Amino acid sequence: MFTIRSLSFQSHVNDASIPVPYTSKLGQPLIPGQTIDVHGAINSDATRAEVNLLHGASQIDPGEAVLHISLRFDEDNIVMNTYMGGAWGNEERESMPFKKGEAFDLRVR
Q1: Model confidence over 23-67: pLDDT tens digits?
Q2: Where's the Galectin domain (predicted)?
Q3: Rounded to whole angstroms, how far apart are CA atoms 62 and 93?
Q4: Beta carbons of 8 and 41 less than 8 angstroms apart
C-alpha cells in the first residue's frame, strides 16, 4: 500500500492528474531490486508533501510506515523514516533536490 499527499501526481507522464491524497495497494509484494517510480509536480505553494509505503492499513496510524518520505520545503530537507509498532524510528535527512512548481521523479529502490 502506498499513499501520496500534497502533490500533483501522475502515474505516467501522458496520463491525467490523479487526485491526492492518493492511496493504492501494490499489485504484488515488493522484492529486492524492484523500483517504485513516483512522477508528479510540486505545487508552487507547497510547504510539505509525503510519500508513504504502508503495511497493515491505509494510514500511518494504526498501520505501519515501512518507508515515510517527507518533502519539507519549509525546512529545505527530505526526511526519511519508519513508523513501526507505534513508534517512529531514527530520521535520515537529505538536502532538498526538488523545486516548488516543477515536475519531479522520485525513485524508491
Answers
A1: 888 888 888 898 888 888 888 888 998 998 888 777 777 778 999
A2: 22-109
A3: 25
A4: yes
Radius of gyration of the chain from Cα atoms? 14
3-class secondary structure, 22 = strand
Cα 60 → chain centroid:
12
- Counted residue by residue, the chain has a size of 109
Q: Domain 2-108 classified CATH 2.60.120.200? A: yes
Write down the domain spans for the chain. Answer: 2-108
Burial 53-89 (b: 16+ CB within 10 A, else e): bbeeeeeeeebbbbbbbbbbbeeeebbbbbbeeeeee
pTM of the model: 0.80
